[in-house]
Predict the 3D structure of the following.
Amino acid sequence: MFQSLEIKKKNNNQFEHNEFIEKINIKDFQITQKILKCNYGYIFLCKKIKANKVYSLKILKKSKLLENKLVDRQYNEYKNLSLIYHPFIVELRGINYTDPYNLYYLYDFIPGGPLRIYLKLYKSFPLNYVKFYSASIITILDYIHKKKIIHRDLRPDNIFLNSNGYIKLTEFTFSKNIKNDNLTYSLCGIPEYYSPEMISKCGYSISVDFWQLGILIYEMLVGYTPFADSDPVNICKKIEKGKIKFPKNFDKNAKLIIKQFLNINHYKRLGCSKRGIYEIIEHPFFKDFDWENLLHRKLEPPFIPNSYKVGNFNYYKNIDENNNEEKNEAISKENDPFYNWD
């Protein structure tokens, strides 16, 4: 029977990742290459000089985060990643929030890049790929939901492939701690992945993650999202109607699970009943799927990105190299809400 993956200390108390997040000094790292653009900054390849180990370093401009009122969201990323440890979630290894110019996050480097790259390249994924990736996401959701954390931004851009073909979920900026079964009301993420309860602002919790999983499964199989439109307003209208068009000869069990994840009534959505995760793992879509070996990373991945190696990042970049860098302003300690995060 499927169980959550629990990482234990030697004394058998629950593992708390928080104590392993180092407060880093940027001078200890050699920044070697810009590899990805992100909101309000960039992700760089870097190397810890003494350890000679490769990491990815996200550098965000504090002035831009303050200007766009994103302090709380950055804090969510830091604190929620401090509380979790799962083999399919990116590890936050270090942080620097006292620098007057930038906020720094040090992560494990994930050499395979995001799933978005492969979707653009292959247009869609075979069914066995989709089962493997979606099952991996389900183990993550089971784990973080038990810790009262929702992700709220499941999409191919935030799911990366490691060199062994297993996934790493990234980008916890929109993650939210929902202790005491509280609901949240924020509209966040991208329109094509909004859930109906997000749009109506009626309040939601874990239901949004299962909706987004349904969108993700559809996009991986078809190559585009089920409610795609050039106009965000039309996207929202389509989501609220909930009518899904499937290509001909679409796998019947895939169609069934997508429809159940994309139930506009979030109380009846797959994964949201009292049986929770068990109604998902027992679904015909996952018939004979080897959950146990997936959790222990003994299941052979359907695809291993052997050609994606450190030092060759032509595929990895999403950067306008001719873009002039905006001036970065220093934030005084007195006006810096990041400075005393702990």
About this structure: The chain has two domains: 17-111+310-322, 115-295. Residues 43 and 320 are 13 Å apart (CA to CA). The two ends are 39 Å apart (CA to CA).
